[in-house]
Design goal:
- The protein is an all-alpha fold.
- The protein has two domains: 69 residues; 59 residues.
- It contains five helices and no strands.
- α1 packs antiparallel against α2, α2 crosses α3 and α4 packs antiparallel against α5.
- The chain starts with a helix and ends with a helix.
């Protein structure tokens, strides 16, 4: 765990976020496209996240290191893996239900899109299971 590298990363992220906010404002005044919200929102998110992390590192460096260490603990990794798996299954069920509802309502294009999203997720899951079965 190198706090100095993380501090540098979050300072760069803070600067990039501020630059995106300014770019969004400038581009909004120069063009007719409404891009201020996209760029300013992304930049604002980066500024808030990096400011919060830099505040954490400055005020409570010991607690920050402890939290980062606990995040890489085997139990935490197993919990995140199980939560990710359950979230994935929930999204598969959601896409399947959405495809059925759209089909029932005769909304062809949304039903096809939901069905394709379901199929891509399912095939991706099978591919990654076979890939990591042989890799790990």
């Amino acid at each position: 765990m190198n706090i100095k590298k993380e501090k540098t990363f979050f300072v760069v992220l803070l600067i990039l976020g501020a630059a995106l906010i300014l770019a969004g404002i400038i581009i909004d005044h120069l063009s007719e496209f409404d891009t201020e919200g996209i760029l300013s929102g992304l930049g604002g998110g980066w500024v808030i996240i990096s400011w919060f992390k830099l505040y954490q590192i400055k005020k409570h460096p010991d607690r920050y290191v402890k939290e980062k260490t606990e995040a890489s603990d085997e139990r935490s990794i197993a919990i995140r893996g199980m939560a990710s798996y359950c979230t994935f299954l929930l999204s598969l069920i959601l896409f399947a239900i959405l495809a059925l509802i759209f089909t029932y309502l005769n909304y062809t294009l949304p039903a096809v899109i939901a069905g394709i999203a379901f199929f891509i997720q399912f095939v991706g899951f099978i591919v990654f299971v076979f890939y990591y079965r042989h890799k790990l």
